[in-house]
């Protein structure tokens, strides 16, 4: 069974840190672009970060640039999202997704449109609140 499972979410105070994990079973993440996306209540899903399959290039929107870091652990078939300096507006359900590289740039893959990513996890809730 091919699936992605996120973990690491929880409640954290503003300014705190969390590390999310995205573990794959049934397939190897090495050959896929991996993305983290989030959806807050009443808002559309948005991209948080993506990492390419080929050269490890990454993309971050301005909202998280400098605070979030995406990385791969090839041996564990897992992708991580390290989130520092968290803000209340980072509160959302965070999803990881995997897709075949269809474009030259990883940024072009980092869009939460149907059909672009092949596999999605069920999400993990991150709440930033004092």
Write a compact overview of the structure shown.
With 130 residues, the chain is mainly beta. 3% of the residues lie in helices and 45% in strands.
Question: What features would you describe in this structure?
Answer:
The chain has 130 residues and is mainly beta. It has 1 helix and 11 strands, in the order βββββββββαββ. The protein has one helix at residues 106-109, and strands at residues 3-7, 10-12, 18-25, 33-39, 46-51, 58-59, 68-73, 78-83, 92-99, 119-120, 124-128. Strands 2, 4, 5, 6, 9, 10 and 11 form a 7-stranded mixed sheet that branches. A 4-stranded antiparallel sheet has the order 1-3-8-7, with no helix packed on it. A hairpin with a 6-residue loop joins strand 5 (46-51) and strand 6 (58-59).
- Give the C-alpha Rg: 14 Å
What's the helix count?
A: 1
The coarse silhouette is: globular
User: How many strands?
Assistant: 11
Largest sheet entry = 7 strands, mixed
- The termini sit apart by 39 Å
Low-confidence residue ranges: none
Mean pLDDT: 95
State the share of residues found in helices, binned by percent. under 10%
Secondary-structure-derived class? mainly beta
Q: Write the element-wise H/E pattern from the N-terminal end onward.
A: EEEEEEEEEHEE
Strand content: 35-45%
What does the secondary structure layout of this molecule look like, with pairings?
Blueprint: E1 3-7, E2 10-12, E3 18-25, E4 33-39, E5 46-51, E6 58-59, E7 68-73, E8 78-83, E9 92-99, H1 106-109, E10 119-120, E11 124-128
Parallel strand pairs: 2-11
Antiparallel strand pairs: 1-3, 3-8, 4-5, 4-9, 5-6, 7-8, 9-10, 9-11
